[in-house]
Design goal:
The chain is α/β, with parallel strands linked by helices. A six-stranded mixed beta sheet has the order 3-2-1-4-5-6, sandwiched between helices. The longest helix has 19 residues. The N and C termini lie far apart (about 75 Å).
Length: about 300
């Protein structure tokens, strides 16, 4: 019988911050009072309790004394959580990612089920390297080559979630425009569509296509991602990001529920069966240029001149 897989660092950090908040509340101390006793700045404690930063074992021991936690079993439990939560996913990419997006990545690596809708581009988890580079160049024309390489390195590292038999179950809904837009040119887009077709055939990855024939729909308001977690400490959450890079995340049950319902509505409008076959055919036509609007216009002009 195999050993149980330890909780992710993100979940351990949430457990720890919850325990520390409860312990401080039980003592009746304010954050300012605790910070003064620990000779910390108040912002340090605020960030620890918010889960924005971890806490070292050396800092945690005297903090537990302030909270009058003396049970060795409880102390050991909290010290283990501190050790397990120090190495957050993708922390080595703090130089290129915002605090909010690092929290998104922590949720992504901890979730048991991920739902994503996109009407603008192929989601990062599904992008080929060439497609990703083309997107990055389009977003930031002055991006330095070494910074671009860092973004691509991080994106490819994220895609390890798709490998093997274990990991989250994924549901991606892509607007038809996403698979038609020739990002990087025909060759890059053909390879990207072939990659999507290969991924769509995997048991943990479900790719759906929302066709133009669906007409106006709620997804036109923008992309969003939904996370479900097995751990009780992690409430279901959603994440929004606009083209300017502004983001919003929430675990409010009402807000999250509305986005889950929106996803289900889009799912009902989408093509679900034989999507891998559809994507391979799209890849062939993209390579040939037979469904390109410019080609269609030229063919119409040629017919008129005949």
């Amino acid at each position: 019988m195999s050993e149980a897989k330890p909780p992710s660092p993100a979940i351990q950090r949430i457990r720890l911050r919850t325990e520390l908040r409860k312990a401080r509340t039980k003592t009746g101390l304010t954050q300012r009072q605790v910070a003064e006793k620990m000779e910390w700045s108040p912002s340090k404690l605020i960030r620890i309790e918010a889960g924005e930063v971890g806490i070292t074992v050396n800092d945690l021991r005297p903090l537990l004394a302030v909270y009058e936690i003396s049970s060795q079993r409880k102390v050991d439990e909290l010290l283990d959580l501190a050790r397990g939560s120090r190495k957050m996913p993708f922390s080595e990419f703090r130089d290129i990612y915002s605090k909010e997006f690092l929290q998104f990545l922590a949720m992504e690596t901890s979730a048991s089920l991920i739902r994503h809708f996109n009407s603008l581009q192929i989601p990062g988890l599904l992008q080929t390297e060439e497609y990703g580079r083309a997107i990055m160049r389009a977003y930031s024309s002055g991006l330095a080559q070494d910074t671009l390489d860092r973004y691509i390195e991080a994106r490819l590292a994220r895609q390890e979630l798709l490998q093997g038999d274990e990991g989250p179950e994924f549901f991606f809904i892509l607007d038809e425009s996403v698979i038609r837009r020739q990002v990087g040119g025909r060759g890059v887009m053909r390879a990207q569509l072939e990659r999507l077709a290969e991924l769509a055939a995997r048991p943990r990855v479900h790719i759906l296509v929302l066709p133009f024939s669906a007409g106006a729909h709620s997804g036109m308001q923008g992309p969003f991602t939904l996370f479900e977690f097995e751990a009780d400490e992690m409430p279901d959450s959603f994440y929004l990001e606009n083209p300017r890079g502004d983001s919003y995340a929430s675990s409010d049950s009402e807000e999250t529920g509305r986005y889950v319902e929106r996803f289900w509505e889009l799912e009902d409008l989408s093509i679900k069966d034989d999507v891998d076959v559809l994507l391979r055919r799209m890849a062939e036509r993209t390579g040939e240029g037979s469904d390109d609007l410019v080609s269609l216009l030229r063919s119409g002009t040629a017919s008129a001149d005949a």
